[in-house]
């Protein structure tokens, strides 16, 4: 075998060795090596304005680098969460978006906030994602009331009217606008909640509903306010 052939064989072997090394390194980095990405330090509620202090860095497999998760804390700063961001888990890009592209509900729905009292809203235990029915409670006209015996079914039916059914709840707040207590929040807090961390009761419901129902509900809210809070909210049946 002449020197030229030996040189070519050696060159080809060198190229193959380099290629195998590069392939092995990339495979190792993909399957074994890790990287740091931001994860919530604790559960973040939907519709929260995101800031860097809400996140910590966590080591994860480098394979997540090419997946649809946020890679840098700065990429999350100033965005809004569209669902609950779980503590310690990577943040999907669809779950945190720019405020200008975000709505609480789909475009065909109008979003409306109404005041409620805990006693008239299932004890204030309504939380995001549930569906509710709205009722008004009104006194019958004196002429109608005289025709029925007090406490009779006819008398009671004249006082209660359903004005909306199966309305989606997109947010719950206290009277000060703070995120109100919910079933999920209580499960997360558990016994860790100290005396200084007071539970905020639901007193503002934000609902997504068809535009044609908005006027009816606003009229009911106005009437309820004049009559001492006779707007009632129930959880809709599944």
Description:
The chain has 238 residues and is of the alpha+beta class. The protein is built from six helices and nine strands. The chain has helices spanning 3-31, 73-76, 142-145, 153-157, 183-189, 214-226, and strands spanning 34-40, 55-61, 80-81, 96-97, 110-115, 131-137, 160-173, 204-209, 231-235. The chain has a five-stranded antiparallel β-sheet with strand order 5-8-7-6-9. A two-stranded antiparallel ribbon has the order 1-2. It has a two-stranded antiparallel sheet with strand order 3-4. The longest helix is centred in the N-terminal third of the chain and has 29 residues, at 3-31. It is rod-shaped.
**Count the helices. How many?**
6
Task: Classify the oligomer.
Answer: single chain
How much beta, percentage-wise? 15-25%
Biggest β-sheet strands, sense, barrel = 5 strands, antiparallel
Mean pLDDT: 79
- Helix content, binned percent: 25-40%
Approximate shape: rod-shaped
User: Alpha-carbon distance between the termini?
Assistant: 83 Å
Residue stretches low in confidence (pLDDT < 50, at least 5 long) are: 182-198
Query: Which series of helices and strands comes N to C?
Result: HEEHEEEEHHEHEHE
Q: Gyration radius, to the nearest Å?
A: 29 Å
Give the total of beta strands: 9
């Amino acid at each position: 075998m002449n020197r030229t052939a030996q040189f070519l064989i050696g060159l080809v072997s060198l190229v193959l060795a380099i290629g195998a090394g590069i392939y092995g390194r990339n495979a190792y980095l993909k399957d074994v090596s890790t990287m740091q990405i931001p994860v919530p330090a604790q559960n973040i509620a939907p519709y929260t304005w995101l800031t860097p202090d809400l996140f910590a860095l966590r080591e994860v497999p480098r394979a997540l680098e090419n997946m649809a998760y946020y890679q840098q804390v700065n990429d999350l700063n100033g965005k809004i969460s569209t669902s609950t961001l779980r503590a310690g888990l990577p943040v999907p890009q669809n779950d945190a978006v720019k405020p200008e592209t975000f709505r609480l509900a789909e475009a065909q729905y109008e979003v409306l906030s109404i005041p409620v009292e805990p006693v008239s809203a299932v004890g204030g235990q309504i939380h995001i994602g549930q569906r509710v029915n709205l009722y008004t409670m009104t006194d019958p006209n004196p002429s109608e009331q005289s025709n029925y015996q007090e406490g009779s079914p006819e008398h009671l039916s004249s006082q209660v009217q359903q004005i909306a059914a199966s309305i989606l709840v997109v947010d719950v707040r206290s009277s000060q606008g703070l995120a109100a207590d919910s079933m999920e929040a209580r499960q997360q807090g558990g016994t860790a909640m100290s005396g200084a961390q007071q539970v905020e009761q639901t007193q503002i419901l934000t609902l997504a509903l068809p535009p044609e129902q908005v006027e009816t509900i606003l009229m009911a809210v106005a009437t309820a306010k004049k009559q001492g809070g006779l707007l009632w909210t129930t959880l809709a049946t599944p």
